[in-house]
């Protein structure tokens, strides 16, 4: 199950989360969004409590779509401590997405856990 997040709940559920959050910006009319949904659920199951998966309907949350400069759907954004760490968009298919998700998982699971609010440099994050 993917938690549906809106502009009203985004700050609490994503930006203030104590664990990394993978935000899936999607829309009901987007065929690729429906295709990748099971892959995202598998990824979440593999990661367990190390990551939170949320969905944002880009059509219903225009301010978030604008803030995160969506160019295409689906767009996946990994946010940790309120900072965008990775962004996945325009992937070419299932294998491309699976490789990107695996890379993402390795990035955050191999990082030592910090007790201070880390900066982008501490996180080893890529800018959006």
From TrEMBL:
Assigned keywords, A-Z = Redox-active center
- Biological process, per Gene Ontology: cell redox homeostasis
Q: A Pfam family this protein belongs to?
A: Thioredoxin
Entry similarity comment: Belongs to the thioredoxin family.
Q: What is this protein called?
A: Thioredoxin
Residue intervals of the Thioredoxin domain = 1-106
Gene Ontology MF term list? protein-disulfide reductase activity
- GO CC annotations on file: cytosol
Output the InterPro entries linked to this UniProt entry. Answer: Thioredoxin-like_sf, Thioredoxin_domain
